[in-house]
Amino acid sequence: MNMKEMIPSLVMIVSAFVLVERHLALYQRSDYWMMISAMVLVASLTVIMTIIGLRLRRMEQQIEASERILRINMEEIEEMIEKILPSVGFTRST
Length: 94
What we know:
Elements: H1 3-26, H2 32-88
Helix pairs in contact: 1-2
């Protein structure tokens, strides 16, 4: 996880703390368990979103690798066909 991913995560956690603290301050209450649970909730959501992003990136890389392999195989097949066709009597008309 790099800094670009960590900064929004930290902002989410701090904003959850501030929102809960401000909300509880409206009712002149101070419930630290509620603040902590809100921070844990937002932190877990952040972790889930980060994991999903990493999985998507990995899937994208796998798809790109598969496309590369297919492209190479198609080029090899095309070269083989171009070698075989003249020997069978077909010529390439361009």
